[in-house]
Amino acid sequence: MESVELLRLNLMIEPDLQSFVGFLMESSRHFKGNAFRTSRACLELNQRLRAAGACRGQPFPVSLQLRDRSLRACWADQELCIMQTGEVERSSVEQLRDHLHRSTAATDPEILMQRNAAMERHLHETRARTEQELAELQVKLLSRQAELQVSIRQAETDPLTMLPNRRAFDERLNQAFRYTMRQRNSPLSLVMLDLDFFKAINDENGHLFGDAYLNRMAHILRSVIREDVDCAFRFGGDEFAMMIYADFGTACEKSKQVIQQMDGKVSVGIATIDQHTHKDFTLEDFIHASDSALYEAKNRGRGRAVVAGCAQGDTHLCGTACTVKVSCV
User: Fold this and answer.
1) Which residues, 6+ apart, have CB-to-CB distance to 6 below 8 Å?
2) Considering only the top CATH level, what class is 166-325?
3) How far is residue 277 CA from its own chain's centroid?
4) Which terminal CB of the chain, N or C, has fewer other CB atoms within 10 Å?
5) What digits encode the pLDDT tens for the residues 7-28?
6) This prediction's pTM
7) Residue ranges for the chain with pLDDT beneath 70
8) Is 4 exposed, middle or buried (CB count within 10 Å of its CB: 0-12, 13-18, 19+)?
9) What is the layout of strands, in order, in the sheet containing 4-10?
10) ∠ at Cα 311 (309, 313), nearest 5°?
11) Where are the domains of the chain?
12) Among 101, 108, 78, residue whose Cα is nearest residue 27
């Protein structure tokens, strides 16, 4: 005969387990099993079910099955053979199954109350445990987010000057450019800066002096921009940049301050976009305009700032609109 499930119960409380053992004994008598051997098997089953979590006020499904000519108690991924039955007639099996189902259909009201109380406790404990786990997960998530923010800052920070690096420049300038071109309510200036003759200064005075010189430049850039509004960057080597939310006049004034404080040894290229900039003007055009103005400043003798003509959207005028030479005493 194929496998037949005779009974299925949830062993939430002690009376459920006692009932299940009673049904096992009834089934053994029905199939004329040895009462002593069945009792021993039930004792072992009691221990194993309790160890697995039965009678703890939460659903614990078990079943009684007739399979492979044996009566078996099954739960989770485990089972225990209660007795060997040999060949049995189908009618006998059906009779036993009907009897067991009728026996479990009518339940003592006191047992029902105990079961409901156990279920209520289980739900309360589960809710409390879930809330605790969610709180712990939230703490871990916040910690992980903080770690991630630190990692991102480290990845986007120049380790010498602690200015944002080229990676941060690319991301922030892209966002600022798109916002300015879309909103058209405030200008944005890009200032590219090169330290003049830095290699010679580094070679003549040594790398420690060169590092201090770079940090001096970084400190000056921070001092001339507005904190949490504008931003200064170090690309690497002697190349720096400023992103200033202002017109080219303001950017030019800040550039003059940098040149003066660096003893006239900085070349600067400035490009600005505003409400007059042509809608087809691209981020690449913006960077190229500032870069071209920087090279124009170098070609005109260094130690000066050149403002590109990007405010009018005319990239052909880049590098020719305005030149500022700063005299340092």
Assistant:
1) 27, 63, 64, 65, 66, 93, 96, 97, 100
2) alpha beta
3) 38
4) C
5) 998 888 888 888 899 999 999 9
6) 0.56
7) 1, 105-120, 122-123, 310-329
8) middle
9) 4-10, 61-67, 70-75, 78-84
10) 80
11) 4-106, 166-325
12) 101
